[in-house]
Structure to design on (175 residues):
């Protein structure tokens, strides 16, 4: 079984209006990491004009921090190659519908063929099942981190959020 743990940082909440500016994917085969793809993605001027100032503040976007970002078309091609889906694959994310929707729209926008994993696993749902009965009343990733005593340092970065998604999955679905 191959699981792709993913996180996208975006310029807002609408995949039709906003775009991905940071992506991290961690590929696991049989519960072990075998590959990783991380990239900051350069937003276009149009993307920046439609961006939510709140989203950009949360993501820490500045043109200086994104000076070496990958151009969107190249990012879409890399993402599609990395996330190649078969009957033995699944996307895993904290609020997987959000990330999957943004990835699909991003790939379509840049004309990249999509063969993403059909199956999805949502760690929000897993947390609701396993942590709510133990007193965790909010399934936001930061609140789960607080509940479990995990660090919030570098939260809302694609890498930290994808790594903590792996960590949460492994905690809630032990081998």
């Amino acid at each position: 079984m191959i699981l792709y743990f993913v996180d996208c940082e975006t310029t807002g909440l609408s995949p039709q209006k906003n775009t991905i500016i940071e992506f991290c994917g961690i590929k696991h085969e049989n519960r072990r990491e075998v590959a990783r793809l991380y990239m900051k993605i350069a937003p276009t001027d149009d993307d920046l004009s439609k961006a939510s100032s709140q989203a950009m503040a949360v993501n820490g976007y500045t043109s200086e921090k994104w000076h070496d970002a990958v151009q969107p078309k190249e990012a879409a091609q890399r993402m599609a190659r990395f996330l190649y889906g078969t009957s033995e694959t699944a996307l895993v994310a904290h609020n997987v519908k959000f990330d999957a929707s943004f990835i699909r729209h991003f790939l379509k926008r840049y004309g990249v063929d999509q063969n993403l994993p059909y199956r999805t696993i949502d760690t929000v749902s897993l947390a609701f099942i396993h942590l709510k009965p133990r007193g965790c009343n909010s399934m936001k990733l930061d609140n789960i981190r607080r509940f479990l005593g995990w660090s919030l340092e570098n939260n809302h970065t694609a890498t930290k959020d994808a790594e903590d998604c792996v960590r949460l999955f492994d905690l809630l679905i032990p081998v």
